[in-house]
Amino acid sequence: MTILNVTVDTSSSGRVDQIGDGSPEPEPEQSPAAADVALGVRHLCDSGITTLPDRYVLPPADRPGNISPAVLPVVDMAALRAGDPSQLATLDAACRDHGFFQVVNHGVSPEIGRAMLEAARRFFFELPLAERKRHMSGYIRAAVRYGTSFNQANDGVLSWRDFLKLLVRDARRLADDDWPREVRAAAAAHAAACQGVFRELMGAALDALGVVSRRGELLEECDAGSQMMMVNCFPACPQPELTLGMPPHSDYVLLTILLHDDVTGLEVSYGDGRWASVEAAAGAVVVNVGDHLEILSNGRYRSVVHRVRVNGRRARVSVASLHSFAAERVISPAAELVDDRDRPRRYMDTDMAAFLDYLATAEGKHKSFLHSRRINVSPSSVSSSKDDGDSCGCQFSP
């Protein structure tokens, strides 16, 4: 589960420990192999490795196996804008029964997506390591952060992934001067485009849910809320059957909008250990429900566990734009979706502080944090829930 690729300081003070002379305590020396791992998988690939380092090898039970294609519902944004009730029903069903869907006719120029992916490839594959390292940081709220794996400080097994985190501090003030110049212009255009799609989808989702009284207020909070882009690089892997690009997780946001190249890798969970590969139509973007929207909808919409598989032939590049309310905002079920009869409250209030506290004491993979916020209710009092929401209701293709 991720919003900031969090590295949590579990000390009580949250400060760097000091030694007698007042200087920060030096970090222990790393072996050359450990230092290579810390610099990321692009650096490992450049070093010429032919076998997967042990830090990346998953236990047999967690390794990727056989999959089938997923058939995602399609939401036509042009028809949604025109007020087509069938498209609102499609969006509602997609969020309720699937958790993942693809959006077509979204109005974003194809050039914006192409420029973003090209800029990402330049950053990861053309920029020298010394330049990329300038953006490495252990500070989780850094506006720009270059890193590797999923949650590097806490991952027992590392993920075959490097990333560039770009925090959008104000969607109305782009491009951010802190962003690497190699991606700045393209990322600014892409961030603005994603924010527009997010705003429209959230407005439609609130309509479908029947959230009326606070609709305008909630959309204003979306406009002033958090947006973060995770630019991901999954290089070709020497032994892809032994590892993953990202482990199973759900997103600690309202909605995630995913742009990716033509290399497949995203997989959604169907439960019982079954996974399906996501392939979007040409020109479509993939959207998924996050933990915040599951809570806001009181469990009507589903935040679905997903992961990324790597391959041994081609690198994969993707850009996930994660959207939610402001980080300090408390997330609760909408009042219109809770009553004393057949819609009991199913989630406790939550905020970023609770999320970080949880990650400091638990592994935090899959949807364990979201599970920790659930309120046990009598099965007879829940009328519409099919299951615990971990798996995707998408259909396997024949």
UniProtKB/TrEMBL annotation:
UniProt-recorded Gene Ontology molecular function terms: dioxygenase activity; metal ion binding
Record's protein name: Fe2OG dioxygenase domain-containing protein
PROSITE patterns named among the record's database cross-references: FE2OG_OXY
Family assignment from sequence similarity: Belongs to the iron/ascorbate-dependent oxidoreductase family.
PANTHER family listed in its UniProt record: OXOGLUTARATE/IRON-DEPENDENT DIOXYGENASE (PTHR47991)
Superkingdom of origin: Eukaryota
SUPFAM superfamilies linked to this entry: Clavaminate synthase-like
Cofactor requirement: L-ascorbate
Bias type Polar residues, positions: 1-15
Subcellular location: Cytoplasm; Nucleus
Taxonomic source organism: Leersia perrieri
